[in-house]
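Quick one before lunch.
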Amino acid sequence: MKPECFIIRKEYFDHVSWLHGIGHTGRVMALVWELCHLTGLESQKPAAYCAAFIHDMSRQHDGICKLHGSLAAKMKLPQFRDFFLAQGLSETELKAVGNAVHWHSLTEEADMNHEHYQVISLLKDADALDRIRLGPHDLDARFLRFTESHQLIKPARKLFMKSALKQEKRAVFYHELLGKILKSFK
Ligand SMILES: [Fe+2]
Ligand SMILES: [Fe+2]
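Model of the fe (ii) ion complex:
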């Protein structure tokens, strides 16, 4: 799977948005990639990454909405299915993408015994880390699911500050930026 192949186009989104559009998607993709690395859940990375790509594409507005996840699983996953398969995902991983996207917009947590609990939680934490864009106090770190996610709170803030105005389509842009930021924190 190659981040260089992922271009986050405006026309993929049902609702054009700054809050839940290209920049947010790019940051969540870079953050989930890094989180898979930090947690050692590399095997979950293809599904978590593809889930991040489509997770907010079916939003119809920027308000509170529990349904856009299930709508994206229903509408966007079929749209990108061939692309995801070409990126090397298996049928099982496609199912994990659907479940992660479905669960990400629900307030309730998936059961820890859910077969895709890890992919669901990786997406939820990466999505939560970009809550910095909503305001300095919008991320409640107590709700992060992985202890490793805490290491990404400050880098996520910097990633947002450095990318907020860019609307850069290339996913790889966010990876390179986060890579530089993580180095500066060492
Ligand atoms: Fe969402
Ligand atoms: Fe999101």
